[in-house]
Amino acid sequence: MKFPVQVFTGRIQKYAGTRPSAIAKRSVEGELILTTLGLEGDQQAEKKIHGGPERALCHYPREHYAWWAQAFPEQAERFVAPAFGENLSTLGMDEKSVFIGDIYRWGDALIQVTQPRSPCFKINFHFGITDISSLMQESGRTGWLYRVLNDGPVNSDTPLELASRLSDVSVFDAAAIAWHQPFDDEQTRRLLSAAGLSASWAKTMQKRRDARKIESFHRRLWGNKPAVKSSGV
């Protein structure tokens, strides 16, 4: 099955009260250059936690935006692609139908799913919603990231097509194991063994097995601020 794709890139911007980010992206059309670090012209502000070979592209299902608009009706007009800073947007692909290690053909390029996107506190500042990063994580509406296996020119008019499926761990399952369940060594090992899993997630899962517990998400989701719930979902 083929999935038409919208493509977006962004440049680093300053945000009051927090660190710079390139989450605000714009639509691009026609032929683009895809490298092992992502789309030419797309920037990342903090490369230790964003971008890099294991997180070269971010994909977010367009279907999710109706849920977000209903959750925050006062900002409903903002919930359209690429509001969450995604590079790729589609209909018909979601966290339950996409699996860790999946290889998609995009023209002559090949991209591989590596992990769910890990929401961070910068999304809170982007929307002005105190806990939207936490809601992304809790709802499982995170999207996912890719590495680039075969680079070169790509085109916004060329659909994505599943080429290979290598694991039985969906992106939804990976998020559930990572964030929604108490520590379970068997499930952690299942995720750790998923072909194509990013090196950073493999490292985190192994640390959990060693420690027999799950690390705190607070700093990633809230930065240096206390957890405060909004009036949304």
TrEMBL record:
Indicate the segments forming the MOSC domain, all copies: 26-163
Q: Which is an annotated Pfam family here?
A: MOSC
Q: Which residues form the signal peptide?
A: none
User: Source species, please?
Assistant: Siccibacter colletis
Q: InterPro entries per the record?
A: Benzoxazolinone_Detox_Enz, MoCF_Sase_C, Pyrv_Knase-like_insert_dom_sf, Tri_helical_YiiM-like
Under what name is this protein listed? 6-N-hydroxylaminopurine resistance protein
